Amino acid sequence: MSNVFVRYFNLMLITLVILSLFSFFLAYLFPGHPIENLTGVRLADISQLENSEFKYRSGESMLVQYWHYMSALFEGNWGKSFNSGLPLYDEITNVLPASIELSSYALFLSVLVGIPLGFLAAMKHHKFTDYSLLSVSVLGYSIPVFWLALLVILIFSLQLGWFPLSGRISLFYEIPKVTGFIMLDIFLSEIEDKQAAVNNVIRHSILPTLSIALVTTTLIIRITRRSVIETMNTEFIQAAFARGLSTRQVLFRHGIRNALMPIFPLLAMQFTTLLTNAMIVETIFSWPGIGNWLIQAIYHQDYPAIRAGMLAVSALVVIFTMSIDLTIRLMDPKRRRLKRAAI
């Protein structure tokens, strides 16, 4: 077990180092002076230029510059935004929880809907129900996320008026920022009507969550269907049928547990897809997450913000994916026995 943990830790560390190297060299690939891209401050005179060059060791080797860059990252000095003039560390930690929250909503909804429908399709294998669910899953997977988001806005916001058009919560509510997760901040706040604020957040979250969850739900349906079919065709399941157990008994005693185990690692990998789709949908719904923030940085050619945002999102995806995969590997005896080359 310790060997597996060490290998995963080394793999994650190497990946993060590669990401940091790519982020560092972006300062030399963007237009403008590299020191401006490193500091995030427009340099107006020679004295500022000389001071910044001394601070970032721009006259020394790339290795020394990279060392100072990493030191600044660990100290929380990620530079400043060209657009707002605020420290990038504060801005990213302010918008990142909103993206994580939206992705979590979509993942929960996808699992809640996708796994039961996947089991239903597998138990009705090669029947009308199976073909119908497969057709719906193919259709849902083929719909572009941005087009679906615009469609639900047109129908449910503009025509029917059921849900808000944009935003995370109504401007009527002033929720003090504590954690960045709006639901948790509501419960930690001292506002009078917390239930009304929660209902308002839910109404704002429904349309973007549905837009993101559709693609992931269709994937989970197909993954679950395939896993259940493979499990039900195994020898120990056939032996259970031979002992006279009904389909319901076999499914609940043996099928569900063994079919879900291969699904969990694949569900963890869907977080990357969810976060990517969330960054697209955030722009359409004006959701105050890191996706919308990065798009605004690109519009304003805010190179320090683009570089820091890409590094933060990439590091989050790598850490989350490898941590979940490691947890599942340690919990599943079959995966613990896999050879080193399987990683």
Short description:
With 343 residues, the chain is mainly alpha-helical. Helices cover 75% and strands 0% of the residues. The protein has two domains: 1-39 and 42-78 and 302-343, no CATH class; 88-301, Orthogonal Bundle (MetI-like fold), CATH 1.10.3720.10.
Question: What would the keywords be for this entry?
Answer:
343 residues, MetI-like fold, 15 helices, cell inner membrane, MetI-like, BPD_transp_1_N, transport, transmembrane helix
How would you characterize this protein structure?
This protein has 343 residues and is an all-alpha fold. The protein folds into 2 domains: 1-39 and 42-78 and 302-343, no CATH class; 88-301, MetI-like (MetI-like fold, Orthogonal Bundle), CATH 1.10.3720.10. The chain is built from 15 helices and no strands. The chain has helices at 2-29, 34-39, 46-56, 62-74, 88-123, 128-142, 145-159, 182-188, 194-232, 235-242, 247-260, 263-285, 290-299, 303-331, 333-336. Helix 5 (88-123) crosses helix 12 (263-285). The radius of gyration is 24 Å and the shape is globular. It is a multi-pass membrane protein.
